[in-house]
Amino acid sequence: MITVSAFKNTSSELVVSSMHFPKVILPNDKDIDFEILLPFIQKSDFVFCFGQKPGLKDKICIEIIANDNGNIIQTDFDIDTFEKILLATGVQSKRSFNPGNSFCNTVYYKSLKYIESNKINCRLVFIHVPYENKITYINEFALKLENAISTYPNKYKLMGVLKVKKGTMYE
Question: What is the pLDDT of residue 156?
């Protein structure tokens, strides 16, 4: 199962709103965002978290790490494969080692730490999108991202590294 998350009243919410995956819209509350996302982490094969970031125009930032006061954790999501899919679907991307120091980083760090500590079979990545006024065609942008996300599990499975949860469409 694929889950997407975004923060309420941001461009990330606009981007994921039309996607045909289970969605979690987080309230921008450092104390409860992770708690709301947690049940989806526990039952998903892949979680794509979205937030907004200044300085972007019609491209995404794929966050490689999360940082909690110098404690750094890196995603085990296959960034190389996802970047190839993004390129093929027409989405420009860049890697980032700066997930910020607010809501995005907090939910990313707590999620990755939970997955690592509990040995959960879930691949999670955080993606920053531009502010709404920096996305030229938001519907097209969202559709291209949805296509890339839809393609990812099958590419990942073909590489023989996916251990899918029983009862999911990827089994």
Answer: 56
- Contact in structure between 13 and 6 (CB atoms under 8 Å): yes
Task: Decide: residue 166, CB within 10 A, 0-12 exposed, 13-18 middle, 19+ buried.
Answer: exposed
Instruction: State the average pLDDT over residues 123-151.
Output: 96
Hey, which residues does 7 pair with through a beta bridge? 26
> For 77-90, what is each residue's pLDDT tens digit?
999 999 999 999 99
> Residue 128 forms beta bridges with which residues?
51, 61
Written as one letter, the residue type at 145 is L
> What is residue 30's DSSP assignment?
T
Strand ranges (E), the chain: 2-7, 23-26, 46-52, 59-63, 65-68, 71-74, 92-96, 123-129
Phi, psi of 57 (to 5 degrees): -140, 115
Region 68-85: what's the mean pLDDT?
Answer: 93
Query: Which tokens in the block code for residue 166?
Result: 């029983």
Contacts of 17 (CB under 8 A, 6+ apart): 6, 23, 142
Predicted confidence at residue 168, as pLDDT, reads: 45
Contact present, 46 and 155 (Cβ < 8 Å): no
Residues in contact with 140: Cβ distance below 8 Å, sequence separation at least 6, in sequence order: none
- Asked whether 49 and 128 are in contact (CB, 8 A), the reply is no
